[in-house]
Design a protein that fits this description.
It catalyses: ATP + H2O = ADP + phosphate + H(+). One of its GO terms (molecular function) is hydrolase activity. With 827 residues, the protein is an alpha/beta fold. It contains 26 helices and 21 strands. Helix 5 crosses helix 6, helix 7 crosses helix 8 and helix 20 crosses helix 22. The chain binds one DNA strand of 9 nucleotides through helix 7, helix 13, strand 14 and helix 24.
DNA sequence: GAGCACTGC
């Protein structure tokens, strides 16, 4: 989750006038006993029969810790919150010394310095502050290159760790710190610049802090700390596999386990455990930061790397830098290492293990340090349903009103649901019930929240509730990590989410409602305790909670791996099957992805990356879309500009606005008629992008006239510009041969077919479509302009299984074209 | 007749 700015946790009360139910943070800092239960007892009686059982054992799921005082809370994952410990035989936890991250030299002056001075006490109050010295010690000295750091929400790790390391003697290069999301990278960079009394990024040549995200890079010649997205770091590795400009890479939010973070960790392990020739002998330090305490998987992951590297260098002197060869399942989700017996036997227990390597060739042992930092989270009381429910929307409705009648305002309710449909369904029900509330009851405003909701409607959740009013936010998973809603004291968790899963056999994604993991449930619960003690109402039984998986299955085990494998191949990993995966995908998935890359011509028969593959790897696109682009640039196709427009539209969500009412929908259909093309969605996207681009006077008005999303079109234009620039650099030619519109359309569709040969289907006599590769029934998605139309064959750029198999992004093609593409798929 | 959430020189 993004580390929010911690202004509210500086030890001052959140509000100047304490609300009746709020417990000011200072009280916690003074270690006063929580009054949570008293408060509940004093609360007005619920008007309905109590709906919930308190949990049978632990009532408080989150410990609260501030100022280093230990409360008797139990940490979210059930382990004890202990004081910080760094495990390293060479690292004795030393007393906190003066912070060396403070700039040396002349005394500061000016507004930037003033800001830095103002922020200093806030930084010093962060839980991580007291451990600055420990963190520095853990990486000081040779062969102390890896630090695993658990820092819970509010510990301050994302902002402080890079500043702690800045003045270390070994830190002569830049510090990279990766984030899963662009907004987090930018806002953290801004915060750290303020804390250091520096300008941000490219605003002045002397600025010390910068960031790098897609479409937005802001660094200066003096940049020392650089926040960047995981994808950007991978992109930088294409140019510099050894990351020579960096002394340390801090990998943040690892617990989210994006595909990119798994790839980053694999590459970093290779660098850190390999020889240092590629880096001119200089070591790279790696800090891996996670919000969940389960870092044993990471410990094993790096241990295995060191062990293999020492085996390599002692046996044949080769480096493990580009090729990890461990067989063990170093799985994050707790699958134990299968090569346990190879681990150093002398060292037990693992907690005190500091040496990942038993030196086999006389080299000093490398050490992996661990550090645990307590968070700043208020306790959250958790309630379960006594009996399972079939209808979580109805159960949520009951819970909302039970809370509303029982608990005083302020205190907003955040409800986690599965999707737009359940959000809108529950919104309707709540609004109906609100009509029946008496005038003496506080008001309710319902606020839906999901990604497809227009931005200005999403913004409404950030406005505080008016007096005597309670906000009820009905949200998808977007509020679990991406959006932090202020004011929430009550969470209602349906225990489910829509999860995307790639089916190797069918080659299509499924998007189904599945139970969430315990860690996701804890994450949702934590959303109630960010500003004050809170409550979490789980719409399932405690027994059901205990049967949930501990962690969410990492994305790399759930997705199409072709993009990930191409990333590896392009960065010099020849043997991708033996890449050091933190969680190793099944062999079948890897083979399937290799086969797909071969069919795209991105790999040679020998499995080496081809020129086409190298080109595709440099594009910010999936391999399939990249292949379409390369095809469109061929002289005989000559439709690169058009393909760029289409791909740009395919790369954003919701070019066409979703309309709520039937009436609006009909209006939109009529308005868009000029954009629709009978050839299908891709030509329709082309007409839309071209129409928008040709509008020179008022593009916003153009989008409104055509019921097109202005925001989406702005993104399209960014991507279009980026792709045009890249095509120039990669010498992909823009054709200047005149073509008839029919010839152009044919070229475009052929280029699409080259990338999406596997995504083709033919019309059956019964009117359904069946894929040519697997003879699977697939239906044209209702959002397609070809919905309800019958054409002899289709090509589609996306497919997903929800209630049935749907093709999205559909174009009509001739069956003999499809047959031709399937027959010969050479480069 | 339907759209979990992120992300990329």
């Amino acid at each position: 989750m993004p580390e929010r700015v911690h202004i509210r946790f500086d030890g001052e009360p959140i509000t100047s006038k304490p609300a009746p139910v709020s417990t000011a943070p200072r009280q916690f800092q003074q270690g006063k006993k929580r009054k949570l239960d008293d408060r509940i007892d004093r609360a007005p009686e619920a008007r309905t029969k109590p709906f919930y059982d308190p949990p049978s054992h632990v009532k408080t799921q989150n410990g609260t810790q501030t100022n280093g005082h230990q409360t008797n809370g139990t940490q979210a994952n059930g382990t004890r919150l202990n004081s910080t410990h760094i495990n390293s035989s060479k690292t004795k936890a030393s007393p906190v010394t003066r912070d060396a991250s403070e700039p040396k030299g002349k005394p500061a002056s000016g507004p930037l310095a003033k800001k830095r001075q103002e922020l200093l006490p806030i930084r010093q109050a962060l839980p991580i502050w007291a451990h600055a010295s420990d963190i520095r010690q853990a990486l000081r000295g040779p062969h102390k290159d890896v630090l695993l750091l658990v820092g819970e929400t509010g510990s301050g790790k994302s902002t402080q760790v890079p500043q702690f390391l800045l003045s270390e003697p070994w830190c002569t290069g830049q510090i990279a710190i990766t984030q899963p999301r662009r907004v987090a990278a930018i806002s953290l960079a801004r915060r750290v610049a303020d804390e250091m009394g520096s300008t941000l990024g490219s605003s002045s040549p002397g600025s010390k802090v910068g960031y790098s995200v897609r479409f937005d890079q802001s660094v200066s010649p003096s940049t020392r700390i650089k926040f960047l997205t995981e994808g950007m770091l991978l992109q930088e590795m294409l140019r510099d596999p050894w990351l020579k400009q960096y002394s340390v890479v801090v990998v943040d939010e690892v617990h989210e386990r994006s595909v990119n973070v798994d790839l980053v960790l694999g590459f970093l392990r290779n660098i850190v455990t390999g020889d240092k020739k590629g880096r001119g002998g200089k070591p790279l330090k790696v800090v891996v930061m996670s919000a969940t305490a389960d870092i044993e998987g990471l410990q094993r992951f790096f241990e295995d790397g060191y062990r293999l590297s020492s085996q390599h260098s002692s046996s044949n002197g080769t480096t493990a830098a580009t090729n990890g060869t461990e067989d063990s399942e170093s799985s994050w989700s707790g699958i134990s290492s299968s090569s346990e017996d190879e681990a150093p036997k002398s060292i037990t227990p693992r907690k005190e293990l500091s040496n990942g390597v038993e030196p086999k060739n006389g080299s000093p042992a490398a050490s992996i340090s661990q550090c645990h930092i307590e968070g700043r989270q208020y306790p959250v009381k958790t309630m379960y349903l006594p009996e399972p429910t079939q209808d979580f929307v109805e159960a949520a409705l009951k819970s909302i009103f039970q809370i509303h009648y029982k608990e005083p305002v302020p205190g907003d309710i955040l409800v986690f649901l599965t999707g737009q449909d359940t959000v809108e369904g529950l919104e309707k029900l709540v609004k109906e019930y609100v009509l029946g509330m008496g005038p003496e009851v506080p008001k309710i405003i319902t606020l839906p929240l999901f990604a497809a909701l227009p931005q200005h409607l999403q913004q409404r959740v950030f406005a505080p509730a008016p007096p005597k009013t309670r906000k009820v936010i009905l949200s998808t998973n977007i509020a679990e990590t991406s959006v932090t809603v202020p004011g929430v004291r009550f969470v209602v968790d349906c225990g489910k989410a829509k999860i995307k899963q790639f089916r190797n056999r069918l080659g299509l994604d499924s998007l189904l409602v599945k139970p969430i993991s315990q860690s996701a449930a804890i994450q949702r619960q934590g959303r109630a305790g960010r500003e004050a003690p809170g409550q979490c109402y789980r719409l399932y039984t405690e027994k059901d909670y205990n049967t949930l998986g501990k962690n969410t299955t990492p994305e790399i085990l759930r997705c199409d791996l072709s993009a990930a494998l191409l990333v590896m191949k392009a960065r010099g990993i020849d043997d991708v099957l033996n890449f050091p995966f933190l969680s190793r995908p099944p062999h079948e998935a890897l083979e399937k992805a290799l086969l797909q890359l071969l069919q795209l011509g991105a790999l040679t028969e020998a499995g080496e990356i081809s020129d086409i593959g190298r080109t595709i790897a440099k594009l910010p696109l999936t391999p399939t879309l990249g292949r379409c682009l390369v095809e469109a640039a061929k002289p005989e196709r000559g439709c690169l500009t058009e393909m760029i427009d289409i791909i740009a539209a395919l790369s954003v969500e919701n070019v066409f606005l979703n309309l709520v009412t039937e009436e609006k929908r009909e209006e939109a259909e009529a308005a868009r008629r000029t954009l629709y093309r009978r050839e299908g969605d891709h030509m329709t996207f082309l007409a839309t992008v071209q129409g928008y681009a040709e509008e020179k006077s008022d593009r916003k008005a153009w989008t409104e006239r055509h019921y097109v999303s202005h925001r989406a079109m702005q993104n399209v234009m960014d991507i279009r510009k980026q792709l045009r620039g890249l095509c120039g650099q990669l010498s992909l030619p823009i054709a200047d041969i005149e073509k008839s519109s029919e010839e152009l359309t044919t070229s475009i569709l052929h280029s699409l077919l080259r990338g999406f040969a596997a995504n083709t289907a033919r019309l059956m006599p019964d009117g359904s479509y069946r894929t040519l590769s697997g003879n699977q029934t697939i239906a044209i998605h209702p959002s397609s302009v070809l919905f309800g139309k019958k054409v002899e064959a289709i090509v589609f750029s996306e497919s997903v299984f929800t209630s049935r198999s749907y093709a999205r992004g559909v174009s009509a093609v001739r069956l003999d074209w499809v047959a031709g593409v399937l027959a010969g798929t050479d480069g």
